[in-house]
């Protein structure tokens, strides 16, 4: 039985209409953009000044760096610093035609030589991250002329165009180029300005930006504080754009100066087992199944995302080209079944009261919801809630049993699969899966140029994850982004990126603020 609304994703979005969810762009007036002003944003932080070494700071750094491609609001790939691209019939050769007139913030021109320098830096000097697999397969980088870049792969590699949207092109004159970049020189609409880690980052406008007449803003200022409640700052006008928790939505929706929208891609929530060094009895498939039967997915998603949270057993939601309806409908754990769970534990010879579960999570309330569901089977649970660095350290020791986490929007589905591969980057959230057959299935999908056949191949790999209970997907939600009504020309994109080829801060401007009504 499906737990999705009858109209799938559209129904989920419609169910939130009472809270004022809408497209910001649709609600904006057709006016001549005003120049000047500082747009103040609070979404994700900035973890490094070196864009090639980031671990999740694209909400900030895409203000000042750009890539050959970008991800449009509908998830498709669009040209960015490349005005056009072409892929050979065998999927091995990718050719890019660079835009004319693009300059770095130091005034130097962008040519194919600089692009290739960035590709080689990521391939040869950067360890870890999303681009490791792609760069490992890159056979050569060529520059037939000053505006043409050719990437030859040893074998077909379908995710490349999407992944290049996060390979930012910097001037090799950037300080720290030979080690760790300390002050990136990019091509974006804003420049790398004053950075105070965990506090704020100010990016002044770049007067030589290649898009004529843009940006309109004088600067963008990012609030980098972790876990702050930005709803009051939004309502007071101290912030213009911010990600907000769902517990603040009711109050924000009643404010006529606030509009609510969503990122187009999703967060997905899951409970993972320790797959690298599983301790008895969690190396027994029946015990893993019992844990899965204890989880009430709908209740969890109601707590996390409200009624528009989407319950499924997959990495993606309906409407995504990789969503498999039959696999979704066959989810044995769409509803909790504690009686079945206890029967499986008896069959496995497990007495829950005699086995304490070590459960690791971030310091998020949703993890406690999952922990309480597991305790109903009789397991005592030692729930260790840590900050990001502490969780990464503990997970990497593989001395735990369960982990409750979420993972955010990605530029390509492969960026979700690669985290479960044997040599994937940062695999700890999924228990460090070591499965050569799973790796082979994912690699087969990556080598498939045809989109329809690639989706089938990816789903074969995902079925193996389901069958072996490496992780149990609870569901998906879309991050809520609020902005004040004076913000014009801007709408949330597919991922956290604040700037992309067809949208973002380069097109944003600030209308006069309406005076507060007198009461």
TrEMBL record:
Localization (cell): Periplasm
Pfam families, per the entry: SBP_bac_5 (PF00496)
Signal sequence extent: 1-27
Record field: transmembrane: none
Solute-binding protein family domain boundaries: 76-410
Annotated keywords: Signal, Transport
Domain of life, per lineage: Bacteria
InterPro entries reported for this sequence: Peptide/Ni-bd, SBP_5, SBP_5_dom
Matching SUPFAM superfamilies: Periplasmic binding protein-like II
Predominant cellular place of this UniProt entry's protein: periplasm
Sequence similarity: Belongs to the bacterial solute-binding protein 5 family.
Protein's recorded name: ABC transporter substrate-binding protein
Organism listed in the record: Plastoroseomonas hellenica
